[in-house]
Design brief:
- This protein has a 3-stranded mixed beta sheet, with helices on one face.
- The chain has a domain of 98 residues: GMP Synthetase, Chain A, domain 3 (2-Layer Sandwich), CATH 3.30.300.20.
- The chain is 39% helix and 14% strand.
- The longest helix has 21 residues.
- It is built from 4 helices and 3 strands.
- By secondary structure, the chain is of the alpha+beta class.
- Strand 1 and strand 2 form a beta hairpin.
- Monomer. Binds 30S ribosomal subunits, but not 50S ribosomal subunits or 70S ribosomes.
- It is found in: Cytoplasm.
- It comes from Hymenobacter sublimis.
- Belongs to the RbfA family.
Length: 148
């Protein structure tokens, strides 16, 4: 579980990294800059794991190209971030970027669930095992030596 300090630093880094990508370094990313879904900070505040959402517009770089752009420019991104948070943090954490594919996974699972064919449940008056009207249905036998 993250401490309050970790949560505050992660929130600050998320906001400032978004500003860095959109305002300070838009020339590094053709098309749409990467979105920041989540930032997790280590307990010693030395490493920040940044989960990116790579939004792809038509006629721009692919997700893999955008990921390599981010990984190649980690030093520049960290320096731009340091200029923004120098008053709040003494040491800027090392940035490790990961691609967050949870949106594509959710879309895939939605498609899988949409393709399932589930037959409708039988109506109440058609319950199997009820031969007589008005009597309660038999309980299923759970064990071989279960006597009633």
């Amino acid at each position: 579980m993250e401490s309050k300090r970790q949560q505050k630093v992660a929130s600050l880094l998320q906001q400032e990294l978004a500003a860095v990508f959109q305002r300070d370094l838009p020339h590094l990313f053709p098309g749409l800059p990467p979105g920041i879904n989540l930032v997790r900070v280590s307990p010693d505040l030395g490493i920040a794991r940044v989960y990116l959402s790579l939004l792809i517009a038509s006629n721009t770089a692919s997700a893999e190209q955008q990921q390599t752009l981010v990984e190649d420019n980690v030093k520049v991104i960290r320096q731009a971030l340091a200029k923004r948070v120098r008053q709040q943090l003494r040491i800027v954490p090392d940035l490790v970027f990961f691609v967050d594919d949870s949106a594509s996974y959710a879309a895939h699972m939605d498609k899988v669930f949409g393709d399932l064919h589930i037959p409708p449940a039988p109506a109440d008056n058609e319950t199997p095992g009820s031969d007589t009207e008005g009597s309660s249905p038999k309980r299923p036998k759970l064990f071989a030596d279960d006597d009633e």
